[in-house]
Amino acid sequence: MFDLRAVKDIRSELAKRVFEGKKLPDTLYHYTDATGLLGILQDRKFRATHYKHFNDSKEVEFGDDLAVRLLHDRLNGHCDKRLSRIYQACLGEKYGGHASVIRTFDCDFYIASFCDEGDLLDQWRAYGDDGSGYAMGIDPKALRAKVEGVVLLPTDGIAFVPVEYDEERQRAHLEFVLDRMTEAFQEQFDQVHDRDVEPFCGRAAQELVNALLNLTVMYKHVAYKSEREWRVIKVKWGREIEAVADDDALTGVHFRVQSSRIVPYVNLDFSDRADETIVPLRNIVLGPKNNDEAAVMTLHMLLKLLGYSGNRRLENLITLSTIPYQ
User: pLDDT higher for 59 or 16?
Assistant: First the structure.
């Protein structure tokens, strides 16, 4: 029988380590185009996009590659045969192709990206419709679906995780998981009957992969550090659609057309905890190519019609980018 108590303690300590010295900002910004802004304001939902359809799908695979290298280092270190079986199972090679922790248990990720700054040149260029879009600032703590406390990859609700760009910290967190999980498995080995070794190793691999995935999906190369990104990540189990026993892989999945491609996404409830008819909006920054009088007037009209005036003046909800942009 696999004892989960030690694993739960490790995951709890891991979450505290990841968030050490990092406080959820009062305002997080989502850079988008006019279609995206209109949809979010009207539907009170953000779209989390399948990671394969990011501007660069290797954003998620970067952390995966690092975890794979560390697992290979352990395997090359002549470890115990049972540990070797666990590490091998974590590499996902049974699905064919290159080794991958993400592929191990056939899961997919849907990600919504935010930034702690509302007027960054790189963000306007990459995500804000080349400066013609908007940076939508929301209060993440006021969300109706917000998960309270330090948490990684919640099964229900919305939790924000900071992207880690420092490779030293990335490695340290992965090594912590590998060291502590390995110790927990070794403590249980003597209690495992020979006939139970295979199911034990399978369950151990699953728990180890779950812990590793909590980290790898928030890792990016240091070259992206200027993005100052926070993510909301939703996991969907069963990428091999025809092989899954239930419909979890497709439940809640929608599709849209983007740059002539069909893109899968899931909706995230971003309604205000105090007023579910609106998003907890702090402000909207108009891009450096989108700050003329007509754009401001139209946004005033839209916000008033949708009920965003309340006790605040609409003028206080709208600001203009100060970045010179050609």
Answer: 16
Q: What's the whole-model pTM score?
A: 0.90
Tell me what pLDDT residue 313 has.
67
Q: Which residues pair with 107 in a beta bridge?
A: 237
CA 197, chain centre distance (Å): 34
Query: 152 near 230, Cβ under 8 Å?
Result: no
Directed axis angle between helix 81-90 and helix 197-216, to 10°? 50
**Greatest C-alpha distance within the chain:** 75
Write down the pLDDT at residue 71: 94
Q: Which residues pair with 177 in a beta bridge?
A: none
Nearest to 52 by CA among 122, 12, 3, 100: 100
Q: Which residues 6+ apart lie within 8 Å of 119 measured at CB? A: 135, 285, 321, 322, 323
Residues 115 and 229 sit within 8 Å (Cβ to Cβ) = yes
Distance CA 113, CA 124 (A): 13
Look up residue 322 and give its two tokens. Answer: 């100060």
Q: Do the Cβ atoms of 209 and 153 come closer than 8 Å?
A: no
pLDDT, position 97: 61
Minimal CA–CA distance to 136: which of 256, 270, 274? 270
pLDDT for residue 241 is more than 50: no
Higher pLDDT, 138 or 203: 138
